[in-house]
Amino acid sequence: MSNNTRNAMTLYRKNLKLSQELFTIVGCFEITLRNGINRHYLTIHGNDWLRDSALPGGIFDRVNTQRTKSLIFNAYNKLNGLGHYTNDKLVTVMDFGFWRYLFAKPQFFAGGQNLLHVFPAKPTSTPAIQYNQTFIFNELEKINELRNRIAHHEPVCFLPKQPVKDTTYARQHYNLILQLFQWMNVDEAKLLYGLDHIATVCDEIDTL
Q1: What ranges do the domains of the chain cover?
Q2: Whole-structure pTM over 0.90, yes or no?
Q3: CA distance linking residue 28 with residue 32, whole number of Å
Q4: Helix (H) or strand (E) holding 204
Q5: pLDDT of 1 strictly over 60
Q6: Which of 121, 129, 128 is nearest to 181 (CA)?
Q7: pLDDT tens across 130-162, in order?
Q8: What is the per-residue burial (b if ≥16 Cβ within 10 Å, else e) of 16-41?
Q9: Do 43 and 32 contact (CB within 8 A), yes or no?
Q10: Separation between Cα atoms, residue 82 and residue 61, nearest integer Å
Q11: Nearest 5°: CA angle at 30, between 26 and 33?
Q12: What phi and psi values does residue 107 have, to the nearest 5 degrees?
């Protein structure tokens, strides 16, 4: 086996390892985000807030939030048809894209314009940067993009759309997740203890 082939196989395995590590971190973030949103809206909209939001007269029963209403209604019907409905189970089956879109303008306003309370430690807006729901929505889109790349088995150890080995993309998105954990007042080091090996794997890839 030539050195080039050996190096390519090593990089392939390291990319798989990095993808697995990142997917674990993204999964922890997704659970933390959805649980934070759920706790917030439970206190405002009641114990069955997610189901109720899709009912006639619910907060998402609006022309510009029909997609959100439909996703909730379909998920609820599946659970209820099996006799398995609880608010917690309904929350669990909604995917990352659903939670991200609660920060889109129509859904954010429908929910009462208070969902940024999920990020109590986010920076104060300045004339240069508005840390509003659009900012959060766009940051979550980056994480969703990473999640989809991993799910579709796309490599994460190269420059975007270029065959050049580089861990910048992975490191930047990893750091973004850590930052958002901090904005949620989550002790990310404690939460990810024993799970977080991103820097180590990135360093191993950089030295190949």
Answers
A1: 3-45+95-203
A2: yes
A3: 6
A4: helix 198-206
A5: no
A6: 121
A7: 999 999 999 999 999 999 999 999 999 988 777
A8: ebbbebbeebbebbbebbbbbbbebb
A9: no
A10: 24
A11: 135
A12: -70, -40
